[in-house]
From TrEMBL:
<keyword id="KW-0472">Membrane</keyword>
<dbReference type="Pfam" id="PF02366">
    <property type="entry name" value="PMT"/>
</dbReference>
<keyword id="KW-1003">Cell membrane</keyword>
<dbReference type="GO" id="GO:0016763">
    <property type="term" value="F:pentosyltransferase activity"/>
</dbReference>
<dbReference type="GO" id="GO:0000030">
    <property type="term" value="F:mannosyltransferase activity"/>
</dbReference>
<keyword id="KW-0812">Transmembrane</keyword>
<dbReference type="GO" id="GO:0009103">
    <property type="term" value="P:lipopolysaccharide biosynthetic process"/>
</dbReference>
<dbReference type="InterPro" id="IPR050297">
    <property type="entry name" value="LipidA_mod_glycosyltrf_83"/>
</dbReference>
<dbReference type="InterPro" id="IPR003342">
    <property type="entry name" value="ArnT-like_N"/>
</dbReference>
<feature type="transmembrane region" description="Helical">
    <location>
        <begin position="9"/>
        <end position="26"/>
    </location>
</feature>
<feature type="transmembrane region" description="Helical">
    <location>
        <begin position="367"/>
        <end position="388"/>
    </location>
</feature>
<dbReference type="GO" id="GO:0005886">
    <property type="term" value="C:plasma membrane"/>
</dbReference>
<feature type="transmembrane region" description="Helical">
    <location>
        <begin position="178"/>
        <end position="206"/>
    </location>
</feature>
<dbReference type="GO" id="GO:0006493">
    <property type="term" value="P:protein O-linked glycosylation"/>
</dbReference>
<feature type="domain" description="ArnT-like N-terminal">
    <location>
        <begin position="92"/>
        <end position="244"/>
    </location>
</feature>
<keyword id="KW-0328">Glycosyltransferase</keyword>
<protein>
    <submittedName>
        <fullName>Phospholipid carrier-dependent glycosyltransferase</fullName>
    </submittedName>
</protein>
């Protein structure tokens, strides 16, 4: 804790981070974040029975069996805290999110310690950690009930151990942190364990001869630590396999099983098609906050964050070159991080591509699966910033990163602010898509006006992780079918999994009357089209309705003032939309 006591900068960064976490915490109901209800189901199993119920455990607030196949460490930790704090009321379960506030604060602390071991200056430390807290999903996950933050902490410990090694600290100290990190990720999440395996594999190859010499410095007690760590992990997985017949058990299958059951003839991607979708989806989920609700965001924020992160490869090779010239071993840390990340992404891609070949499922392409490498990203960014001598470049990078961080407050706090400044009504929760919008069909959503005029409508759209072309048209029609407003947008400018804003001249509405949103694209074809997100109750896989299998029914409200139609036929769903009233107005006062 001496780092925090002596370094006000670290405290300031952590306070900013916690403020961002608080925004997501306060503005999102329980179950809104990725897989939050299934995670909570296992946590409550521990609070009641001492261990996750991998045989018959239920998702929280659902009759559905749990589907998560994660190891138990996070659930045991959170469940014990839940039991000690006596958070036995459902109204208090949301406070379990605060556990990850502290876990991610520890991650930031060990990143700071890593940067100090590299003797990075304060300016570079501030800017590099700003990059991390500008990544919305790092903050959002830190404000949720989820095992990702604990996995990231384990990887941060591993990278801290490596930073000690490459800065000539005691090999014993290095070993202890690597062991601690390895045990944490192995007992928390498979993707985290794969990250550490890739890191240590590359580390052993790069440092093979030196490691033999370093190992001679170890004491007998250190080998006992190694043995105990291995026994801890092996013992856990042996128990799981003996008890449940699997190393990663779960009471039911995952979304790929449901998708295959619903769409057995779904088209399979070629490797190149899948690679393009893989890139687009990971990029989108790296730059954009997401979950079982949609988050308002600014394109400019995503663009600035994308630019900030796109500089990382250039900065990485620049700092490697400079460190080699300085005969500093630190270049090997950067090379190790880049090679192990590449190896991880290769395994990740091949694994989920084989899933697509087997089932046709196109999910599981999310950037958070490689978040174990975020601590290394911060270290590399800091080392690169420190190597920059040109003051103009320093100032420009500082402005870019600072603006990106400042704009990160928008998606975190938007809902509470916008409802005062520019209120809206509509459907913001999503759980399905209803197919491509092509020239052969129209998507429609009716609604009851809550304002006396409309100037803006937002729709939540997806591009299927590809670049599409054509024109998108949104019309507002009254009950007689008369078009009262129309707006067109170039499809190529649409971002994947994001709200798209349509602006109109101020158009009068009759409050309480019914109107129709009509979305069409006269030149879109299959494979070159977007889709409009929808919310379908009870869930998008009807064959599982009334059973304990399939996805949980989200405990969220569905817009009751209208429904979705495709070619004038009810889709038994509601498209996701927001209709804004006049600035500084309230729908109940109009």
């Amino acid at each position: 804790m001496s780092l925090l006591n002596n370094n006000k900068m670290a405290i300031i960064i952590i306070v900013i981070f916690l403020i961002l976490c608080s925004g997501y915490y306060l503005n999102s109901s329980l179950g809104s974040f990725p897989d939050e209800n299934p995670h909570l189901g296992y946590v409550l199993d521990v609070a009641k029975n001492g261990f996750p119920d991998y045989a018959g455990g239920k998702t929280y607030n659902s009759i559905k069996l749990n589907r998560l196949e994660h190891p138990a460490l996070y659930y045991v930790l959170a469940g014990i805290i839940d039991k000690i704090a006596i958070l036995l009321s459902s109204s208090l379960y949301k406070t379990l999110r605060i556990i990850n506030f502290f876990i991610s604060s520890l991650t930031l602390l060990f990143i700071f310690k890593s940067l100090h071991s590299f003797k990075v200056n304060n300016e570079s430390i501030i800017l590099s950690t700003f990059v991390l807290i500008s990544i919305p999903m790092f903050v959002l996950l830190s404000a949720s009930i989820n095992n990702d933050p604990l996995m990231i902490l384990g990887c941060a410990l591993t990278f801290y151990g490596l930073s000690l090694y490459y800065n000539d600290y005691s090999v014993r100290k290095t070993l202890h942190y690597i062991l601690a990190g390895g045990v944490i990720v192995s007992l928390t999440k498979a993707t985290g364990a794969l990250s550490v395996v890739c890191i240590l594999f590359v580390f052993c190859i790069i440092e093979n001869k030196k490691l033999i010499i370093k190992f001679r410095q170890l004491k007998c007690l250190d080998f006992i630590y190694i043995l105990l760590s291995m026994l801890c992990v092996l013992g856990y997985y042996l128990y799981m396999h003996v008890t449940y017949g699997k190393f990663f058990p779960a009471p039911q299958g995952d979304p790929s099983d449901w998708f295959h059951a619903a769409y057995p003839d779904a088209p399979r991607f070629t490797k190149m098609e899948y690679l393009a979708a893989f890139y687009q989806s990971n990029l989108s989920t790296l730059l954009t906050p997401y979950g079982h609700k949609t988050f308002d965001d600014w394109n400019i924020r995503r663009q600035l964050l994308g630019l900030t992160l796109s500089l990382l490869p250039i900065l990485s090779f620049t700092v490697i070159y400079k460190k080699i010239k300085e005969h500093s071993p630190q270049w090997r840390f950067i090379a190790l991080s880049l090679i192990s990340f590449t190896l991880f992404m290769l395994f990740y891609f091949l694994t989920i591509h084989s899933l697509n070949v087997k089932t046709g499922y196109t999910g599981a392409m999310q950037a958070r699966y490689f978040f174990g490498f975020l601590p290394a990203m911060v270290i590399i960014y800091a080392l690169a910033l420190q190597c920059i001598k040109n003051n103009i470049i320093k100032i420009l990078l500082g402005l870019l990163i600072s603006c990106t961080t400042l704009l990160s407050f928008y998606p975190a706090f938007y809902p509470s602010v916008i409802k005062i400044i520019h209120p809206y009504f509509g459907q913001t929760n999503i759980n399905s898509v209803l197919g491509e919008l092509t020239k052969e069909n129209d998507f429609e959503q009716d609604f009851i006006a809550q304002y006396n005029s409309v100037e803006r409508v937002d729709l939540n759209l997806a591009t299927y992780a590809r670049k599409n072309t054509g024109t998108l048209s949104l019309e507002i029609a009254d009950q007689s079918g008369t078009i009262i407003a129309k707006s067109k947008i170039n499809i190529s400018k649409i971002s994947d999994n994001a709200w798209l804003e349509f602006n109109f001249k101020s158009t009068p509405l009759i409050k309480g009357s019914r109107y129709i949103l009509r979305l069409s694209s006269p030149d879109s074809t299959h494979g070159n089209a977007i889709t409009w997100y929808a919310y379908k109750k009870p869930n998008p896989y009807p064959m599982y309705n009334g059973t304990i299998y399939g996805p949980e029914e989200l405990n969220t409200k569905q817009y009751e003032g209208g429904q979705a139609y495709i070619d004038n036929k009810s889709a038994e769903a509601t498209f996701s939309f927001k209709i804004y009233g006049p600035m500084w107005s309230n729908p109940f006062n109009n």
